Amino acid sequence: MDSVPSKLDELSAVLESARAMPMSASCVVNRAELLGLVAELRALLPDEISKAQDVLQDKDDVLAEGRREAARIIAEAREQQRGMLAEEEVYVQAQAEADRILLEATNSAQAMRAEVDDYVDGKLANFEIVLTKTLTSVERGRAKLAGRNELAEIVDRRDEAALPG
Q: In total, how many domains does the chain have?
């Protein structure tokens, strides 16, 4: 399956293998080929964005599940606490156990949140790299096109100046 990085590599290869213009940083490229590659890149980007949105949704789902589980554990701990209030000694033990469960649930929820954040951050960092490479490639392409247009204007001005008259 094609990916954004592979299409960028393909685009770079086309530009690198393009015939150089004498005494210039410009080159001659097949417009249709480059436009085709750009169109393919445009088609792939929504998939990459969709994948990033899926990752974010997964994070939200995992966090929501963690919160539900923490709330369930806390409710369970409180219910156990109420049931053990009958005797003072049992109450003290229940309080300690409820505190332990509450701490365990809090620690578990924090650990899950940290794991999810790390996972999502890694995915977003990869996506950022892909987008940065794409943007850099597009900027280079536009700069080359601008350079080619400037060269054409200089040649036109030189030709006009050489005309008699």
A: 1
Structure tokens at 163: 């005309």
pLDDT tens digits, one per residue of 75-134: 988 888 777 666 677 777 888 999 999 999 999 989 999 998 998 899 889 989 999 999
**Do 56 and 119 touch, CB atoms closer than 8 A?**
no
As a whole number, mean pLDDT of residues 31-51 equals: 83
8 A C-beta contact, residue 133 and residue 5: yes
Structural domain contains residue 108: yes
Check: CB of residue 147 under 8 Å from CB of residue 26: yes
Judge whether 49 lies within some domain: yes
Residue 97 in any domain: the answer is yes
Which residue matches tokens 């601008």? 146
Task: Name the residue range of residue 89's domain.
Answer: 4-129
| Residue 136 resides in a domain | no
Write out the two tokens for 46.
């929504």
* Torsion angles phi and psi, residue 17, rounded to 5: -90, 0
